[in-house]
Amino acid sequence: MSKNNKKKIDTKKLVIVISKGTLDMAYPPLILATSAAAMGMEVDLYFTFWGLDLLNKNKINSIKMAPVGNPGLPMPNIVGMIPGMTNMATSMMKGRIKKYWPTIPKMMKSAKDAGVRIHACSPTMGLMKVNEKELIPEVNDIIGASTYLDLAIDADVSLFI
Q1: Please, are residues 117 and 45 in contact by the beta-carbon 8 Å criterion?
Q2: Cβ proximity of 103 and 27 under 8 Å
Q3: What confidence score (pLDDT) does residue 5 get?
């Protein structure tokens, strides 16, 4: 067996489906992806449904924190319904996050630079009326469910976020 074949067999693979496009749901898959890539793993990220907003250059810089229905926030759920609370929660969370991680666009670039493959879901693009020109340059390709399943079938770790 050649050295290249052995390396390929020993390489671990992580596949993550990102289905949510809020600030608090954007960071976990990006942190896991960049960490896994730094550990030498192959990493594929498949963005579908609201997660596709994280690949949309018209939306990526305005991703918000959802205070309504978020049990992790230290306030009663009803408070999140007050006008301006979404912006306040987003600002608060961004202030805390910047002490630990870069912005979402910078995390995407870091992931891509580390070898993470970024895939947009083609059926979701149709559903959400997103065209290819709206995608950030870090996107590797546009794929459907069957191609995603081909990626995931051999994964050592597969996550749905």
Answers
A1: yes
A2: no
A3: 47
